[in-house]
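Hi R.,

Here's the input for the zinc ion complex you asked about:
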Amino acid sequence: MRATVLHAPGDVRVEEIDDPRIIEPTDAVIRLTAACVCGSDLWPYRGAEPVDGPMPMGHEYVGVVEEVGSEVATVKPGQFVVGSFVASDGTCEICRSGYPSSCVHRVFMSQVGTQSERARIPWADGTLVATPGVPDSDLIPSLLAASDVLGTGWFGAVAAQAGPSRTVAVVGDGAVGLLGVLAARRLGAERVVIFSRHETRQRLAREFGATDIVTERGDEGVAALKELTGGLGAHSVIEAVGTQQSMQQAIRSTRPGGHIGFVGVSHDVSLNGQELFFSQVHLHGGPAPVRRFLPELIDLIWQRKIDPGRVFDLTLPLDQAAEAYRAMDERRAIKALLTP
Ligand SMILES: [Zn+2]
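And here is the predicted structure with zinc ion in place:
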């Protein structure tokens, strides 16, 4: 089958690799209907994470089950499924407590690769959720978004305790930040402020429910946010970038007693202990437990109550994956969808 492989920073190719097959009795093999490039795929692409030899790429996926192992009970061949970017058994104590992305048996799908024609999904019962039927084609981008960026933005909003009568600030205007806006509004937030200086992203943020846009960043951004919130800062802040600057901006934007949901994959972030101590904020984050939210998110999409697929502003055939990476790296595209 054809699959996307990163050979070195900046060198991504689509090439023939072996077809996936059932290895464990808990596996499924799916045929991808759509895949996409994630902001986190850009870290190794840009050389900010090591590339040790050829690396299969991709961890977001929707598709049709082709084959299941002998122990798989909840999905069957022919069903359309959405899964999380982390495979999880669904039965361990961590999964049952709502944190399947830290399952004791977790497998990051980025180790498997899903920017391909097919993929092996470990722990199919714990990982995959079947949709009520075969989706209309216009629902596919939104279902694909649920696999990671929507689920991650949603977790950011939940972790930040976004809700009625609260002001939520979102640091980061990539797909996760934009969907954090959508999530915060769905969860009832009164006011949603996004930090963004990019016009098309601002527009989409408004459509997803942002009430205010702050174009300054860093401490100037914090000052502008404080001006909007009576000098106090936001109740809830979603951090969706993962850099030192964004994390610092998130902490400084949060009022004492407030909550931060940090879902940008952290790179070279070190926090000042004393500043953290006196900030008096709650910090909760990490790889989003997307599987926890999938049934609810699929239902909202199926009923056409949310349209998170709008973050995809570029669609290319799988063979042009290299161009999809370039477009996202150069910020010409918010998020690129690949059709195998
Ligand atoms: Zn588990």
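One thing worth noting: The first helix runs from residue 42 to 45.

Cheers,
M.
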